């Protein structure tokens, strides 16, 4: 059974009936595994570059090789940290490749989905077919951040909702007109769901969020990425 | 009436009875205003440095002056963006100084609270005195982020909870032991509350969160700041 069908069945089993405006947040790990985005390091031969970076990155050269294949650019390598620009455009540690909750042996690592927006669209379509409701779908993952400690859930794939909510032109409580505020609602929804999903043995890969006013839209997690020309921290 | 007392009264009026383990998230703006952290730009004389930076920062030189007073260091100034290190240690746009929801005239701007951890502790003590419950308190604000579009709610003050939740040493569902994961739960709680609070004319400055397992702790939003020596993006 496909992941979208499994999610529909799980919603049904939990007596959750999705309604228009709900947001279903699905953990990247189950999407990746369902789509076969798993690599056995035993079958990876590191290139010269991966072997050269491995000691500074503090990682197995085969893992570094997988990370490099997933990346378009190395952003920082320093004292056990390897930060790259992922082929999907965002900047994160280890290109999102990790060992946890793969469950296919000690050498198996999980990559991000090939196209998380497409994964979200497929889940959205299945929920719509089963329940008749136009919901938003977010694929979330935990990313570290420059300047701040700890990882937080962020949106890496989306469908059916507007990831950014512009407040420009809206009034505050005193008639002042907002001039620059844009809220990354998809990232906030992703973070909220992470609080319930956990990352260890909780077994809670999906969270249905209700009661947050969201705007229907194309989704596209790419819209959450800052234009490189405007990114002062590259 | 003090803000902690107003919050106790509002909880009571909403028939919300805080219980141990709940988290009350309070918007920075009401804390700052209650503590008088408001400056009238009409009374500000910009220094030479503020006048020099103003055109590139795309801002009133008097506003730049206030931002500089709140900051220990300028991080980036480019094409209408002014990013500084705030005296509280975090890196954000305009040192958290803004015009919205101040309500004291067109030239009034609001600063961050002097000591948001202390503000959170006072709210926590008032809730404990009124309801007998040991809750966590977070002061949140919306910050932009390097690399990603849009602002998200983050924790700038905390009391009674552990802002970071280390998963190191815990097993995943397949017995793999987590090695590096640390979750910034205080930032995720701050982001979740922002979804309900809004930032315009919603009039929802505080949100009570229940059902998220948090660890009691000292709070201290400073723990969410990366050690400058380990921050690869300074």
Give a brief rundown of this model.
2 copies of one chain form a homodimer. With about 230 residues, chain A is an alpha+beta fold.
Textual characterization of the structure:
The structure is a homodimer of 234-residue chains. With 234 residues, chain A is an alpha+beta fold. The first copy, chain A, folds into two domains: 1-36 and 112-234, 60s Ribosomal Protein L30, Chain: A (2-Layer Sandwich); 38-111, CofE-like fold. In chain A, 28% of the residues lie in helices and 22% in strands. Chain A has six helices and eleven strands. A four-stranded mixed β-sheet of chain A has the order 8-7-1-11. A three-stranded antiparallel β-sheet of chain A has the order 3-4-5. Chain A has a two-stranded antiparallel ribbon with strand order 2-6. In chain A, strand 4 and strand 5 (91-93) form a beta hairpin. In chain A, helix 1 crosses helix 5 (116-131) and helix 3 (48-57) packs across helix 4 (61-69). The longest helix of chain A has 16 residues, at 116-131. The termini of chain A are far apart. Chains A and B meet through strand 8, strand 10 and helix 6 of A and strand 8, strand 10 and helix 6 of B. Chains A, B: Keywords: GTP-binding, Ligase, Magnesium, Manganese, Metal-binding, Nucleotide-binding, Potassium. Chains A, B: Residues 3-211 form the Coenzyme F420:L-glutamate ligase-like domain. Chains A, B: Its EC number is 6.3.2.31. Chains A, B: It comes from Candidatus Segetimicrobium genomatis. Chains A, B: It is an enzyme of class 6 (ligase).
């Amino acid at each position: 059974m496909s992941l979208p069908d499994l999610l529909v069945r799980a919603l049904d089993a939990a007596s959750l009936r999705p309604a228009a405006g709900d947001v279903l947040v699905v953990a990247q790990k189950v999407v990746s595994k369902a789509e076969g985005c798993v690599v056995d390091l035993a079958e990876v031969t590191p290139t010269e570059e991966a072997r050269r970076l491995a000691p500074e990155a503090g990682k197995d050269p085969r893992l570094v090789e997988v990370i490099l294949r997933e990346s378009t650019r190395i952003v920082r390598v320093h004292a056990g940290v390897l930060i790259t620009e992922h082929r999907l455009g965002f900047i994160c540690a280890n290109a999102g490749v990790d060992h946890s909750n793969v469950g296919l042996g000690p050498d198996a690592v999980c990559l991000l989905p090939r196209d998380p927006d497409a994964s979200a669209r497929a889940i959205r379509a299945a929920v719509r077919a089963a329940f008749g409701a136009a919901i938003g779908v977010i694929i979330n993952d935990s990313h570290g951040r420059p300047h701040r400690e700890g990882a937080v859930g962020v949106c890496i794939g989306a469908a059916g909702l507007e990831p950014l909510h512009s407040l420009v032109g809206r009034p505050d409580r005193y008639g002042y007109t907002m001039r620059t505020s844009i809220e990354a609602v998809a990232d906030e929804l992703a973070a909220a769901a992470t609080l319930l999903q956990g990352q260890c043995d909780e077994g809670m890969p999906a969270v249905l969020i209700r009661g947050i006013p969201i705007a229907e839209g194309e989704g596209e997690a790419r819209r959450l990425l800052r234009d490189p020309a405007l990114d002062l921290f590259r």
